[in-house]
Amino acid sequence: MENKKFYITTAIAYASKKPHIGNSYDIVLADMIARYKRKKGFDVHFLTGSDEHGQKIEENAKEMGLTPKALVDNVAGEIKSVWDCLNVTYDRFIRTTDKDHEDAVKKIFVKLYEKGDIYKSEYEGKYCVPCESFFTSSQLKDGKCPDCGRDCIDSKEEAYFLKLSKYQDKLVEYFDSNPDFFQPASRKAEMINNFIKPGLADLCVSRSSFTWGIPVEFDPKHVIYVWLDALTNYITGIGYNPDGSSDLFDKNWPADLHVIGKDIVRFHSIYWPIILMALDLPLPKQLLAHPWLLSGDDKMSKSKGNVIYADEMVAKFGTDAVRYYLLSEMPFAQDGVITYENFINKYNTDLANTLGNLVNRTVAMTNKYFGGTVTKPTADFDEFDKELKETAKSVVEKYDTLMDAYRNADVCETVMSLARRCNKYIDETMPWSLAKNEADRDRLNAVLYNLLEGIRIIAELLFPICPESSEKITEQINCSVSDLVFGAVESYTVGEGSPLFARLDTAKVLAELEAEMNAKIATAEKANAKRENVAFLSEIGIDDFAKVDLRACKVVACEPVKKAKKLLKLTLDDGSGKERIVASGIAKWYTPDDLIGHTVICVANLKPAVLCGVESCGMILAADCDEDDVKVIFADNIPSGSKIR
């Protein structure tokens, strides 16, 4: 009988910059689900990729002196490299600059226009460049983008629009008749209350103020708006084309699961289903909108200095350790948190101590006491045996239920609970004590067999989460029987044991990470200085110089920044009556006592940035005097608040 299909996708990563570890959760979660479904006999097709058009990419490329295509080629390569280092088993990595995608999107636009679902008009309102999203003034939050909190720009241009309102009632009917469409279910109420009940405004699906996008065939001064372009990858990536689709599309559509972040639920639960309705295509079966992974208690951002990259974590701690942390630390509906301290603690507690130690000492005892071979006992010896078997049975039953509900953190906890029970079983039965008495040899054989059975089941359950470690465990116990019934194996002849996860020295690793962070700060400062020197060689007009607000500020307090050896935190009197905090990388050349009481020159209208936990509102002026000498420019005879012209 042919296997049942399962088509799973991730949101495609925006190719403006390298994805951080929070972005990587999406792909690891989807890979866990895909691996689990394959183990259950499903014919899985797994699609991921990169979103490569839009105004933000065009602007970034211009700033970098690159063509947009050169920029996205580089970033798409970085995205794919990160996904690969996380051992992700996708079937296609689609790029929205792929020719088959672009050709299909052009035809989709024409089809919707000819059907009357797309029409030409004019847009006037607020636009968020990073989110590629339009908003009315009433939709803004405190005057800023409701999704990312950044400033929006006024925008007025000719554009094509998709008739969302035409399909509003049909969409609500679909939600009501498919109660499992939203995961978690709370996402439905958010969409209904925040967007559908107020009435759907028609969606802008083209832009004419920039050129980096797929052109509208019959009106080439317009490019197709990024969300129509990006969302349709889920069908073009498996061969959809209005002129005739592939067998792969016919086999796999509709998607069984879209895995996305909670910040793009609106696009996937409102815009995407309506696009499909307009194309007369079935809707996806389910949408898994996961929470965010935060660095400390905040979103990751280069400007905040709290970005962690998955490939760097993999290089330091290993692929499975990173996968395990991501999957075990993210609750189903609440945001998760990553800090290096939390990561190291979970690594040592779960992977090194609970799992790694269990496998290592069980294999070692089997080799030591029985030459590597133990056989299935004919009966249970005591309640400890029964309790271990009951725990294994319960874990297997819970595992499938939790996996099918996408409760990844609960899945990890359940698997680890069996490992903890096995360790407790060792303490209860004390095999080292049994080995001292020949009369206890059958009991010792049963204990080690039961432990190996528990480990075998753990390895099977662990495979979608930590595939490399699962395979290493299977190799060490020399058994690949996948039956999850306790006692399915008649005998074991184990191989040589080797540690799965070496315990980390927390203080040492944190010191190494701090040194690396300081090196990155130094590199960034050098790069900034280089850019500033290059900029100095280019002429600017008086209007450009006038934009810089230079103020005399007295240093009233100063202290080192604990997490960064190069930074000092300066408290300045800028004449406004309020204190101004500035973080400056001058700790190598100045102590707080060198600065307190002096007046410095501060760039007062610099956009605030968080540096190692300090929100810096400005920058003090200093001079690079030679290769390794920096002098702060003092202005002690100038009153605080005076404007420097």
Structure, briefly:
This protein has about 650 residues and is α/β, with parallel strands linked by helices.
What would you note in describing this structure?
The protein is of the alpha/beta class and 645 residues long. The strands form eight sheets. Strands 1, 2, 3, 4, 8, 12 and 13 form a seven-stranded parallel β-sheet that branches. Strands 18, 19, 20, 21, 24 and 27 form a six-stranded antiparallel β-sheet that branches. α10 (265-278) links the parallel β12 (257-261) and β13 (287-290). 40% of the residues are buried. The model is unreliable at 534-538 (pLDDT under 50).
Strand content: 15-25%
Could you list the spans in which at least 5 consecutive residues all have pLDDT below 50? 534-538
- Number of helical runs? 21
Mean pLDDT: 90
How many β strands by DSSP? 27
- End-to-end Cα distance, whole Å, is 81 Å
- Biggest sheet details: 7 strands, parallel
Structural class: alpha/beta
- What general outline do the C-alpha atoms trace? flat
> Rounded to an integer, what's the Rg over CA atoms?
29 Å
Q: What helical percentage do the residues reach?
A: 40-55%
